[in-house]
Amino acid sequence: MSFAILILIGAQLIGEVLRRLLHLPLPGPVVGMFILAIALIGPAKRWLVKTPTGPSPLEKTASTLISNMGLLFVPAGVGIIAELGILRRAWLPIVIGVIVSTILGLIVTAMVMHRVMRRTERASNAQLGRGQQET
Length: 135
Hints:
Blueprint: H1 2-22, H2 28-41, H3 45-48, H4 57-67, H5 69-72, H6 74-82, H7 84-89, H8 91-134
């Protein structure tokens, strides 16, 4: 489990370093998440995810973190309470920002899902076409 935590923190650290070096407009942990996702898709998948005896240490650690995710929101909740005065003064822009970003997130998710479904459908139709030609 400590190796998996090291991988997660290392990806976050690399993301933070890249963000600062390249002056990226994203938080370091988000950049690190992209790096970890690419690593899990690429050749590193063999030793990060696959084990013959069961779930990998990374998978076990991720499951543990997800099962205790409620605890990870405690600092955010404390921060909200600590900044209640700012929230009272600027509630309208905050509400508008949350609503607009939610709508944009839904639209982008729907567009990506639509494209993925079309691509998957085309690939399955192409395989069906090949199967019929061979018979």
